[in-house]
Specification:
The protein is an alpha/beta fold. It has a single domain, classed as 3-Layer(aba) Sandwich (Rossmann fold), CATH 3.40.50. The protein contains ten helices and seven strands. The protein has a five-stranded parallel β-sheet with strand order 1-2-3-7-6, sandwiched between helices. It has a two-stranded antiparallel ribbon with strand order 4-5. The protein is globular.
């Protein structure tokens, strides 16, 4: 069956997912080896959501992110170099090395520095959308949040305000089935988180979060709706985190069989299979993408390590008080 999308578009979705996965895998070992400072919350297994949603956005649209922001940052256009430098705490990083893993961002790329507070980005995205509407700008804001955020007060207040004012905002809930180590079945009684949208009078959609094309299509429709003044959409993207909540998490709370099944359904291998079976790309083409991504990441690691660490007094620069 012939795809309705251009080959270049589909291969770019694949490349971006591979970039996120291989970036995260490289960072994981840098932390484990004690080479990189700080801590990390990683995105492996959820790549199709960030890539699919951001593919539907314009450059001047904005996103807010969470304590698990690397995938969102790369999908929104931050460079591997600026992100890697940030994680190494270098002044050449996207936030001058002062944000670290949980607070990466770049306003010029349309990413507000990530917020580690659960649900904290929801009212911020709502506020951005309010500003766009007041200025008459055809721009859209997107809030990425985990399933745990839907039980926060910020979720209720932010989504309700977006709804009553018909703001150009998407509320994307990445439902990876666990809030840290707590199963969503223990915290939400609904079968679909998207059903909560009915309480605010806005559309709610549940999509396969491991299918980048499906995510793109849902996001594209919601973005167009928002841009045309029709208000917000709540998107629940169902996925599975195939890494720990943080770098020290062995995931003992996840049933082994569920983890095995999740790895069979993870987005990158699944999309690669689709691309080759449909004759859209060859194995050699996909291998070349992975090799090019590896080289880009290694170059960023080398360049980050070559930059001198900031002097202590650099911590006093850029302060507002």
């Amino acid at each position: 069956m012939e795809s309705k999308y251009e080959k270049s578009f589909l291969l770019d979705l694949y490349r971006q997912m591979v970039l996120i996965r291989q970036f995260e895998d490289r960072v994981k070992f840098l932390f484990l080896e004690g080479i990189m400072p700080g801590t990390i919350h990683q995105y492996q297994g959820q790549e199709a959501i960030a890539v699919g949603v951001c593919a539907a956005l314009n450059k001047d649209d904005v996103i807010t992110s969470t304590h698990r922001p690397h995938g969102h940052a790369l999908a929104k256009g931050l460079t591997v170099e600026s992100l890697m430098h940030e994680l190494f705490g270098k002044p050449t990083g996207c936030c001058c090395g002062k944000g670290g893993s949980m607070h990466v961002g770049d306003l010029e790329k349309g990413m507000i520095p990530a917020i580690a507070i659960v649900g904290g980005g929801i009212p911020i995205a709502t506020g951005c959308a309010f500003a766009f509407k007041m200025r008459g700008e055809k721009r859209v804001a997107v809030s990425f949040s985990g399933d745990g955020a839907v039980n926060e007060g910020a979720f209720h207040e932010g989504v309700n305000m977006g709804a009553i004012w018909d703001l150009p905002v998407l509320y994307v809930i990445e439902n990876n089935l666990y809030s840290a180590s707590t199963p969503i079945a223990d915290t939400v009684k609904l079968e679909k988180v998207s059903d909560r949208a009915a309480g605010y009078g806005i559309p709610g959609v549940t999509v396969d979060g491991n299918d980048p094309v499906a995510v793109y299509e849902v996001a594209h429709a919601a973005v167009e709706r928002a841009r045309n003044g029709e208000g917000p959409t709540l998107i629940e993207a169902v996925t599975y985190r195939i890494t720990g909540h943080s770098r020290r998490d062995p995931c003992n709370y996840q049933p082994k069989e569920a983890r095995r099944e999740a790895k069979k359904r993870e987005p990158i291998k699944r999309f690669a299979k689709y691309l080759t079976e449909e004759g859209i790309a060859t194995d050699a083409e996909l291998d070349a993408i992975r090799e090019a991504v590896d080289a880009e990441i290694e170059e960023a690691v080398v360049s980050a390590q070559a930059v001198p660490d900031p002097k202590p007094e650099f911590a006093l620069e850029g302060l507002w008080a």
